[in-house]
Design brief:
2 domains, alpha+beta, 10% helix, Gln_synth_N_conserv_site, Ubiquitin-like (UB roll), Gln_synth/guanido_kin_cat_dom
Length: 172
């Protein structure tokens, strides 16, 4: 009997080991790059506060000078690892200096301070979803209503517009 890749990916190894792999993930020095490194833990963990802090060389990620390059990872959230599966986890981390100061790319620290303020906690958040799309002309792959090779005027008349002269491509 041959094993399929899906059989291997879904293989239950919990009978063989309690250990898990935790992939620590953080934002790198550019502010848009994602970094990560993995460690083995002796048992499954469900609470980020139970995870150990970890460190890395911030001079290699553009987040610290070479002479003082240590950056500390503070685990903030845990998610099941869809790549390794099993009890393995992805750990979303914040980045701090050894003195406990958040790095400039650590935007969550300031957001946490704002969202934990009593005035903000007392509020009930609202969320709105918005759908935006552009219809393209069939032959030239250019937005409907735009001058060919150019751009339309300011969006004012078109934003949330109704009517054939505002919502181009919509027949009313």
């Amino acid at each position: 009997m041959s094993l399929l890749l899906t059989d291997l990916l879904n293989l239950n190894i919990s009978d063989y080991t309690e250990k898990i792999i935790a992939e620590y993930i953080w934002i790198g020095g550019s502010g848009i790059d994602i970094r990560s490194k993995a460690r083995t833990l002796p048992a499954p963990v469900c609470d980020p506060s139970k995870l150990p802090k970890w460190n890395y060389d911030g001079s290699s990620t553009g987040q610290a000078p070479g002479k003082d390059s240590e950056v500390i990872l503070y685990p903030q959230a845990i998610f099941r690892d869809p790549f390794r599966r099993g009890n393995n986890i992805l750990v979303i981390c914040d980045t701090y200096t050894p003195d406990g100061e958040p790095l400039p790319t650590n935007k969550r620290a300031n957001a946490a301070k704002i969202f934990s303020h009593p005035d903000v906690v007392a509020e009930e958040p609202w969320f709105g979803l918005e759908q935006e799309y552009t219809l393209l002309q069939k032959d030239v792959k250019w937005p409907i209503g735009w001058p060919l090779g150019g751009y339309p005027g300011p969006q004012g008349p078109y934003y949330c517009g109704a009517g054939a002269d505002k919502a181009l491509g919509v027949t009313l």
